[in-house]
Request: fold
Amino acid sequence: MRIKNLIYFFILLFFISCKKKETLFESVPSSHSGIHFNNKIVENDSINPLNQINIYNGGGVGIGDFNNDGLPDIYFAGSMVSNKLYLNKGNFKFEDVTNAANVGGEGRWCRGVSVIDINNDGLLDIYVCVSMAKDPEKRRNLLYVNQGIDKNGVPHFKEMAAEYGLDDTSYSTMANFFDYDNDGDLDMYLSVNEILPNSNPNIFRSTIINGTAPSTGKLFRNDFNKRLNHPVFTDVSKQAGILTEGYTHGVTIADINMDGWKDIYITNDFLSNDILYINNHDGTFTDRSKEYFKHTSLTAMGQDIVDINNDGLADVISLDMNPQDNYRKKMMMSNNDYQAFGNFDHYGYQYQYVHNTLQLNQGPRIENNDSIGPPAFSEIGYLSGISQTDWSWTPLVTDFNNDGNRDIIITNGYPKDVTDHDFMAFRSRAMTLASMHDILARIPEVKIHNYAYMNNGDLTFTDVSQKWGLGKPGFSTGAAYVDLDNDGDMDVVINNINDEAMVYKNMSRETNKDSSNYLQIKFRGSQFNINGLGAFAELHYDHGKQQVWENTPYRGYLSSIQDIAHFGLGKIKKVDSVIIKWPNGKMQVLLNVNADQLLKVDIKNAQLDYSFSRSRVDENSLFKQVNDSVNIHYTGPAKDFDDFYVQRGLPHKFSQYGPALAVGDIDGNGLDDIVVGGSYHNSAQLFLQQPNGEFIQKSLLAAKDTINKNREDEGILLFDANGDGYPDLYIASGGLQGKHNSSDYQDKLYINDGKGNFTEDSTALPQNFTSKFCVRAIDYNKDGKLDLFVSGRVDPGNYPKPVSSFIFRNDTQNGHVKFTDVTAQVAPALKNIGMVTDAIFTDFNNDGWPDLILVGEWMPVTFLENDKGVFKNVTPETGVGDKFGWWNTITAGDFNNDGKMDYIVGNLGKNSFYQASNKYPVKIIAKDFDNSGTYDAFISSFLPASQEDTEMKEFPVLLRDDAIRQMVSLRKKYSDYKSYARATMDSLFTDDERKGALQLHANYLSSACLINDGKGKFTMTSLPVQAQFSVLNGMTVGDYDGDGNLDVLINGNDYGTEPSLGRYDALNGLLLRGDGRGNFSPQSILQSGIYIPGDGKALVSLRSSKGKYLIAASQNKGPLKVFELKNNPKLISLEPFDESAIIHYKDGKKQKRWIGYGSSFLSQSGRFLALDSNVVKVDITNSKGEIRSVILK
Reply:
């Protein structure tokens, strides 16, 4: 037998060596492995995907050493075929022992495979979930209890589900065994997916949350029966709070909040919400999915919870059905429907989008009064590069190449695509005319390759599907990873529909042994949990690196992986320490552990105590939230407006950008107050600070004055317009609520009487009906008066036509306020400059005159040099004029301490469907193409054309129905979905049609730092990846940690996006810590104390009555948040015309700071300097060039 195995092994090696291209995985042919399992499904008039939606949901894979010979065996679940058990004979040879073992599945439609030692006798058993059959007797789940191993090494099983109380007849999909009540034995959660006849699971309705819906999961408690000498399971679902319905595909058990109690995460298909049952420590659970996750996958399939970036925190990956290529997207994705999207709010659903999601665990959040809350998550699927893998089922997440980072393999495919738009159109026409056979024949297949993603170690992944040898198309569902040959790398087993199962041998150890070291851990637990499910393993090595594993085999989809922990170590040959934390509160620490071994750990050797308890109050962060102490509890009213009705094809709304914030002493009591911008039909609000540090709220407008307010308060600015010493209020009018060139967009100037009472001066401003955005003030011509810059944002109904921005010169005389539009004279370059989102007056060339930098949509960062009162566009000379983006915000700081102003510029970021580069930019073309009187805008992006044609080509982003709504004439040109799915931009519009069209592009969407190289030149570098999670908005700059270097605090997100692509919501506020050399390190929520989870907009700094440094952050449709810096910088007041300062430190270092009226997205901070204890002197320069020095003790 040994010689025979060696012969087979050399045959396999010869087969591998004959391959032309070396890959990480080599497919083991069934002729060698002996695995011929084929989950064959034969359709008929009653069994087909039209009558039974879940027919092609596939079967699972179960891995276990069922005969205890040291080699992991394989069990496959079949739908219309027998289940199969294959014993591992070594060298990738397997023997089918199904009949002898008595585990064929009883002729039932089997789904999930849960490998479990149900009676803790040292022999692995098999629990199989059953579904589909209308007869409940044929849906009874199966429990194959291992009765022992015969002389030939074959295990024999007895079906005993009824005896154990596990013969459930629900339409179950998978079982997860775990200890939910911490009593030491393993209970079970059962997933259910039952679609009632004649029901549509994609129709919005109220979710059933009382346990009465048939498609509701179940929780079974393990009650040991002494008479039977084995557990009997009791359904405790209702008393445990397992009551919420859902069409479940995947479940993972994890202690997601690290409190020592196991939680349950459930991914559901169709509209049903995913569920996160948090363990309440008393035998009950509460669904807190909405609290933990801002959005989830819509048609969620398989999932896993595992630390993806080695920070010790559990991340969540969930799969969906978004294709990578253009053809499949156009044939199956849903159109934009803003009204339908509103139903998520109306019916209380979680926000859900069709793409794979990667929920990155950001650690505990910090809430009001320093209280530490549950973990906060950021969904970064698009940024990571794994979001679009078509009809996906199983995520296998482990370190396949043993480099120390966990990779991902995703199975996918579907035999009959009932979502194909052309088929759906045919079906609606032919349902009563054609036979079922003819209708079924029209359904296209989705036979595509599985995906492999290599973890780059920076939260991104590289598609290595072909490179790793996974290019074979198929209909792959359940899968598992396992070290089949005990060589230290993880092989892969995949259950296919209508094709033989796939077995892939991992070649890492054969081809790259020195760089693919590993450590594997086998757990032996307590009497009633012999395999130690729920234990944690921690590895610490290589100067602070770590890896963590939570022991559960039920991962991915319908499957059980090998019950070991696997860690890739790259070139590391020794691990400093291995810490095992057992569920009973005991742990063991192993030091200086050699790599390349299977380490066996036993709970009997755990003598040390540990605890998951932690302080509930934060003591170490830089900031704390102080809304209670300052008495600000405000959430601005926001009346929803459908911008997409005004103009189709918009990438985002324009009516959801506020509220703006501005800071100044409004009421003359010497304290900083806050103005919060108003919205459509709602007034701006004044928050007046009192001597006790609390704020009182006051409305700017009377209620009667808001009835006809068809505009948004966009930019707001406090400045002394008339020279009386009191801050007046400018409000820039914007949004899309008014029509093109409507008087609704006339800006407002309110004059302050010095006590906080404002009166509109309707004659002070020039008439201007542009929909505007930001407003900034400076004495640009050095005449002793503050002048204004006001940005044009959009031409309603004519996006993306460039619009003009404006310079309003202050011509006030003798208290009579008058501003004159002098744009044509002093800044002609502002005419149709673009859709400007933010601007800053700043002396970027250090000549003593304030220059102007603009950022905007489809624009480069634009530099206007002030030549003694006249602004000239010098962007082409800066070295960064070729970086066109969706720039959103800008702020200034001397980030490398060289005396020149550098800049942080916020952009869309990298966590979006829109990905841009020089080679593959995002583009837009706009024109009234069909002379219908409507301005038609079509955004395009570069995508692989199809599964067969992977060349990147330019395609319209709009789906066919959306495009036809935009241009009805396209219906005739593209009579079916297939023709449109093949249409590139070149075929969509002819050369003649393109004549006269506006064409713009964006080739750089990262948020960045602009380092000033002097002489008007800049170097642009991307900010850290955490700053690319979402859109950046309001920002403040300061030395928050007191190290003498400038840091950046950021507010962000944008919920006003086109519905089908999803909200940009991954930011939770962010502090970037500067190192004084132009580099930044992101701080966690626990480190910064900043947690702004909503649709974050403006961000401003101000002073409290007690001399503390405060930050105020606005959120659209969310609460205004106020934070206090815990250290105590010295706060220096500034004069109205102060423009810059040089900070002198004790060590001789100097740093420049710019002082303006307004900085970053819709934000104006208070006019003061915050200085740490190492500052000895400040030289402050005003608009006339006069310098005054402030000496600090």
The two ends are 88 Å apart (CA to CA). Residues 2-17 form the longest helix (16 residues). DSSP finds 20 helices and 80 strands in the chain. Residues 6-11, 14-19 have pLDDT under 50 and may be disordered.
